[in-house]
């Protein structure tokens, strides 16, 4: 009897990989075409097909809960929907921080407004970047975007050029540019060695799986100079609100290892109290905060680097709560 049961289980498992007929297969093929996906083997493609259907069903279940007001955010199929959650977490390993910091004390700020959005309230046009799925480079994209916004506020240029994350990956990555690097290394590099060049002069190359060779300056005197940077104590969301309200974009280290973050689409994201997998690092730029009447929740507005097809045109609103502080390894550039 045991052999018969085991045989049945194995056959059922095999059948699980043979599900991809009809609409499931058509949906997967459309997904592959939309995101220009390629897979090294037929087996890898079958796994991707399986997890695409699994993750699509997860999206459907979450959104059904949202329709009943049982969750405060919605999900959508995106560039990560053909992999397992543990694979997604592995793409974004936990950052390793330098042991020495050159941070200076934060400047004094005024009391915060009740709600504020640096980008929207100042009427800024900021390009949302896409780090791709090959290199864990949010540390560089977040650092570059924070410097870009900081410089735009100081100069009054509300439509700034995008600055190069690739320069930071290549020149400040120190061999970990696509794995466990942290924004402090980007700020140390910029305060000690170099201007940050526009991405049109030093193009971002998200298809690369490893950092490249650091290229020489594309032209003399073109770029943004960083004089110093500051940090905030972990858990100090009050200080975070104060600095953001004073037009200072702050980079935070956020754990993305949940289905909700991986496939976030809209609404106010509330992370689970116990993530389903090991902690990872995705660096976000906190650009605002406010109150959402639809969910009756306070939120932080954060700029990510997964492209405009993820989240709310590339942004995510994360619940703002004393029990779930977002200020973790927070760092920001000074003018």
TrEMBL record:
Occurrences of domain Cathepsin propeptide inhibitor (ranges): 28-88
CDD domains assigned to the protein according to its UniProt record, in alphabetical order: Peptidase_C1A
Location of the Peptidase C1A papain C-terminal domain: 112-334
InterPro entries the UniProt entry points to: Papain-like_cys_pep_sf, Peptidase_C1A, Peptidase_C1A_C, Peptidase_C1A_papain-like, Prot_inhib_I29
UniProt entry keywords in alphabetical sequence: Signal
UniProt signal peptide: 1-18
UniProt cross-references to Gene3D superfamilies, sorted A to Z: Cysteine proteinases (3.90.70.10)
GO BP annotations listed: proteolysis
Signal among keywords: yes
Gene Ontology MF: a single term: cysteine-type peptidase activity
PANTHER family the UniProt entry points to: CYSTEINE PROTEASE FAMILY C1-RELATED
UniProt family annotation: Belongs to the peptidase C1 family.
Name listed for the protein in its UniProt record: GL16998
Organism: Drosophila persimilis (Fruit fly)
């Amino acid at each position: 009897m045991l052999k018969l049961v085991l045989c049945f289980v194995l056959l059922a498992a095999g059948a699980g990989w043979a599900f991809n007929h009809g609409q499931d297969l058509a949906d997967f093929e459309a997904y592959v075409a939309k995101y220009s996906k390629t897979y090294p083997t037929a087996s890898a493609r079958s796994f991707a097909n399986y997890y695409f259907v699994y993750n699509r069903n997860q999206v459907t279940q979450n959104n059904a809960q949202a329709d009943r007001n049982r969750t405060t955010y919605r999900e959508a199929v995106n560039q990560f929907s053909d992999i397992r959650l543990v694979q997604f977490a592995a793409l974004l390993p936990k950052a390793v921080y330098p042991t020495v910091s050159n941070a200076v004390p934060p400047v004094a700020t005024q009391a915060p407004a009740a709600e504020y959005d640096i980008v929207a309230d100042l009427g800024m046009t900021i390009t949302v970047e896409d780090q791709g799925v090959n290199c864990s480079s949010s540390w560089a994209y977040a650092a570059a975007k924070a410097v870009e916004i900081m410089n735009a506020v100081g100069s009054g240029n509300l439509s700034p050029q995008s600055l190069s994350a690739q320069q930071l990956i290549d020149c400040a990555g120190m061999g970990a540019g696509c794995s466990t690097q942290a924004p402090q290394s980007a700020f140390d590099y910029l305060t000690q060695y170099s201007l940050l060049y526009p991405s049109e002069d030093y193009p971002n190359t998200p298809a690369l799986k490893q950092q490249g060779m650091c290229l020489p300056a594309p032209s003399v005197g073109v770029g943004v100079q960083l004089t110093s940077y500051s940090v905030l104590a972990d858990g100090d969301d009050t200080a975070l609100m104060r600095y953001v309200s004073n037009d200072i974009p702050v980079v935070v280290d956020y754990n993305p290892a949940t289905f909700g973050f991986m496939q976030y689409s809209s609404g106010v994201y509330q992370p689970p109290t116990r993530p389903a997998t090991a902690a990872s690092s995705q660096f976000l730029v906190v650009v605002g905060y406010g109150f959402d009447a639809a969910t009756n929740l306070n939120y932080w507005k954060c700029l990510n680097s997964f492209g405009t097809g993820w989240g709310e045109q590339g942004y995510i609103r994360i619940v703002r709560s004393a029990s779930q502080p977002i200020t973790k390894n927070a760092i920001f550039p000074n003018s």
